[in-house]
UniProtKB/TrEMBL annotation:
The keyword Transferase applies. This is Methyltransferase. The keyword Methyltransferase applies. It holds the Pfam family Methyltransf_11. Keywords: Methyltransferase, Transferase. SUPFAM superfamilies: S-adenosyl-L-methionine-dependent methyltransferases. One of its GO terms (biological process) is methylation. GO terms for molecular function: S-adenosylmethionine-dependent methyltransferase activity.
């Protein structure tokens, strides 16, 4: 595996296909999680009128995205720039500022998911759209089992079941959450490429080993003994709508045509 961003690209392209049914194109989009400009390029083709702003807690990810854009035809032709901000996922975003918030594999960098979802809900306009990708609880299940047999425990508190993820969205500012999953099987020949992907995908942060040094040594031993390592990622795709908050004592009434 040589392309550092190929999983981001795969998940972004899959999510982009789900935008075909949108009736009203967004005018303002918050990108939470820089991915080498992959997501921004896809969305700019679909929504050429949209203005973008990009946030990420990882300065090197922002720099990589800016570097790609700086040499791209889009920026040269339009003379547009994408404002970037390096901040944690729970640091306040501009309130009620966006029609869409797009987060491609930024959640693995989160500490606690509810605070992130609350922050995202505040950043969206009423009925604004959230689209995100994440990893589920079965991610790296086989490897975690092998390490457990060696006495190395691994907790993944932010990699949860997709149904629990939907419930969490509903409890933290969103309605009509929809989530679904798929499985990816990856084979590595070198340990350093495996750990590079773990860092790029944010899984290095999401995997909390009881003994991180022992875990790395054990993975290196697996590569040395077996000549490679095959792992499975459970990918999660989700979208939801920002709840409309009404003044106290008021309720939203919806009318639907018959049939």
């Amino acid at each position: 595996m040589t392309d550092r961003w190929q999983i981001h690209r795969l998940l972004a392209e899959e999510t982009d296909q789900r935008l075909q049914l949108l009736r009203t194109p967004p005018q303002s989009v918050l990108l939470v999680g820089a991915d080498a400009d992959i997501s921004r390029r896809l969305l700019a083709v679909r929504f050429p009128q949209a203005a973008f702003a990009e946030y990420d807690p990882r300065a090197d990810f922002l720099q990589a995205a800016a570097k790609v854009r700086g040499g791209g035809l889009w920026q040269k032709l339009t003379r547009k720039t994408v404002p970037q901000t390096c901040q944690s996922l729970t640091a306040p975003l501009p309130e009620a500022a966006a029609d869409m918030l797009w987060a491609n594999l930024s959640l693995p960098a989160a500490g606690r998911l509810p605070e992130v979802f609350q922050n995202w809900a505040r950043a969206l306009k009423p009925d604004g759209l959230l689209f995100f990708t994440h990893f589920g609880r079965d991610t790296l299940e086989g490897l975690k089992g092998r390490l457990k047999n060696l006495g190395i425990a691994c907790e993944t508190p932010t990699l949860i079941d997709m149904h629990d993820l939907g419930d969490m969205l509903a409890d933290n500012g969103f309605y009509d959450p929809v989530t679904d999953t798929a499985k990816l099987e990856l084979t590595y020949r070198r340990a350093e490429m495996f750990w590079q992907d773990m860092a790029t995908l944010g899984l290095e942060n999401a995997l909390r080993f009881s003994d991180p040094a022992a875990a790395r040594d054990a993975v290196s031993a697996l590569f040395a003994d077996e000549g490679g390592l095959t792992v499975t990622l459970e990918t999660v795709y989700g979208h939801a709508v920002k709840k409309r908050v009404l003044p106290q004592g008021e309720n939203l009434v919806r009318f639907y045509p018959r049939g």
